[in-house]
Amino acid sequence: FHNVGWPGAAIGVLNTVAMATFVASLQLTTVANNSIIFGTSPFMTAAIAWLMIREKPSPTTLVFAALALVGAAIVVSSSLQISARGLAGDALAVVMTLAFAIKTVLVRKHANHSMVPSAAIGAGLEAVVAVPFIKDWSLTSGELALFALFGIFQQGAGLILTTIGIARLPSAEAALLIFVAAFVLIFY
Asked: Which DSSP symbol is given to 157?
């Protein structure tokens, strides 16, 4: 934690922004819209990686990223007819995807730094940000155990391992793999 520096702190904050906007987006739009918009993350990540660190994605990655972008455009255009609430949720999903893309590129750019403290900072900030939204502090022991397991595996091990893995792959490919994994988990 002592040597985390501004990149590590920024990665932690971007983790928090991505998670907070993900949850808020799901309150306002459909899971499908949220997921398809997140599907643009490989394209967005490739563009940001090229701008920030001049990392060129492979042609195959660009083809799949473009397909995800077309799918997102179709889904978002259908949201315009639904409601302003749905459109707000879609906008939050775009912010989530942008935060994820920037985080991915920063992790790649600073791959020589330990990312474990950055992931821990993000998980800690996420917990702090969530506190004002808690309406009922009473939990059964089963619910408390379930939340503890979620925190350990999703926000602990999952976030740490994902952040470490991102540093070892080209940015756009890492984003594409994470999107595919998220898509499978959500729709399985």
From this structure: I
Distance CA 160, CA 148 (A): 16
Say what percent of the chain tops pLDDT 70.
87
* Contact indicator for 109, 52 with CB cutoff of 8 Å: yes
Q: Which residue has the tokens 């994902």?
A: 162
Q: What is the pTM (predicted TM-score) of this model?
A: 0.76
Tokens encoding 131: 């506190």
The SS3 of residue 54 is coil
Residue 126 or residue 157, greater confidence = 126
Phi/psi class of residue 138: alpha, beta or left (left: φ > 0; alpha: ψ in -120 to 50)? beta
Nearest 5°: phi and psi at 83? -170, 160
Residues in the chain: 188
53/28 Cα distance (integer angstroms): 34
Pick the range with the lowest mean pLDDT from 10-19, 163-172, 175-184: 175-184
